[in-house]
Amino acid sequence: MKLYPLQFDPILKERIWGGTKLKSVFNKPITSDITGESWELSTVEGDISVIANGEYKGKSLTELIDENPNDLLGTAVYARFGKQFPLLFKYLDAREDLSIQVHPNDELAKKRHNSFGKTEMWYVLQADEGSRIIVGFKDDSSPKEYVKHLEDDTLISILDTVKAKSGDVFFLETGTVHAIGAGILIAEIQQTSDITYRLYDFNRKDAQGNTRELHIDLALDAINYNKVDTYKSYSKEVNQSNSIVDCPYFTTNIIPLDGKLTLSKSGDSFTVFMCAEGSFEMEYNNSLIQFKKGDTILIPAALKTFSINGEASILEIYIS
């Protein structure tokens, strides 16, 4: 099987808080003015990514993994996860505030939902003036204090609100209460999980006048009530992989590309590129392929040496 850099048809999701930036910024083929998410690379049940380029166009990611797991996933990833693809990649456009929510850890998610937990990170691609996010508590809290403020409709007063700008990175371990604020476009890298406990939704209603379901009881023992530091500083050395996040679930670097760079991989893990800015071409096995802003590329583990050339800002993700 000859593997090559894979692109996928975006899986577009309407959301009550969504907008049109996925089209205006990334030229995604949205058909709704409330498109909140583009799932770029997914094996979540019911939302399996389909290959959009090359010989395997039209084949699902799970089919390709099933046929050649070592070469696609990598020897170490296959040994650890079997044929499961362990990560989910998205772009999110928040025209309005998202709900305040939390994700369970692996243990709770396995017990309740037979799922991975949801450790995730955000890379801010664009933020309107004055945009902010909610990440954790201002000070150490407790279930009792949290419930009181929830009942009094004052939950926001004890949560930490941070202004957001392009290039900011926030790393959200499971249990961190959080919400993306209005006016923000982000790249999200997370464990393969769609388990979210919604705590508060600003009392808003959908077009039919209905409020969205909350998960107050489920969230109580999933929340980390301690103050957490989620902001990640990082260097931006040109034509190098600069570390941003290195956790048990994924490693994310940023490559500020200016010219040509040759990369060598071990074969232990697949690599994913998310092109945050600019454009570049990739040369592999005497072949050339072009990528632009908003593209997400899965580089099979068997593709150990390749070159990239252009002017771009690239998120590089793998499992170490």
UniProtKB/TrEMBL annotation:
<dbReference type="GO" id="GO:0004476">
    <property type="term" value="F:mannose-6-phosphate isomerase activity"/>
</dbReference>
<keyword id="KW-0413">Isomerase</keyword>
<protein>
    <recommendedName>
        <fullName>Phosphohexomutase</fullName>
    </recommendedName>
</protein>
<feature type="binding site">
    <location>
        <position position="103"/>
    </location>
    <ligand>
        <name>Zn(2+)</name>
    </ligand>
</feature>
<feature type="domain" description="Phosphomannose isomerase type I catalytic">
    <location>
        <begin position="8"/>
        <end position="115"/>
    </location>
</feature>
<dbReference type="InterPro" id="IPR051804">
    <property type="entry name" value="Carb_Metab_Reg_Kinase/Isom"/>
</dbReference>
<dbReference type="InterPro" id="IPR046457">
    <property type="entry name" value="PMI_typeI_cat"/>
</dbReference>
<dbReference type="Pfam" id="PF20511">
    <property type="entry name" value="PMI_typeI_cat"/>
</dbReference>
<dbReference type="InterPro" id="IPR049071">
    <property type="entry name" value="MPI_cupin_dom"/>
</dbReference>
<keyword id="KW-0479">Metal-binding</keyword>
<dbReference type="GO" id="GO:0005975">
    <property type="term" value="P:carbohydrate metabolic process"/>
</dbReference>
<feature type="binding site">
    <location>
        <position position="120"/>
    </location>
    <ligand>
        <name>Zn(2+)</name>
    </ligand>
</feature>
<feature type="domain" description="Mannose-6-phosphate isomerase cupin">
    <location>
        <begin position="245"/>
        <end position="318"/>
    </location>
</feature>
<feature type="active site">
    <location>
        <position position="198"/>
    </location>
</feature>
<dbReference type="InterPro" id="IPR011051">
    <property type="entry name" value="RmlC_Cupin_sf"/>
</dbReference>
<dbReference type="GO" id="GO:0008270">
    <property type="term" value="F:zinc ion binding"/>
</dbReference>
<dbReference type="InterPro" id="IPR014628">
    <property type="entry name" value="Man6P_isomerase_Firm_short"/>
</dbReference>
<dbReference type="Pfam" id="PF21621">
    <property type="entry name" value="MPI_cupin_dom"/>
</dbReference>
<dbReference type="InterPro" id="IPR014710">
    <property type="entry name" value="RmlC-like_jellyroll"/>
</dbReference>
<keyword id="KW-0862">Zinc</keyword>
<feature type="binding site">
    <location>
        <position position="178"/>
    </location>
    <ligand>
        <name>Zn(2+)</name>
    </ligand>
</feature>
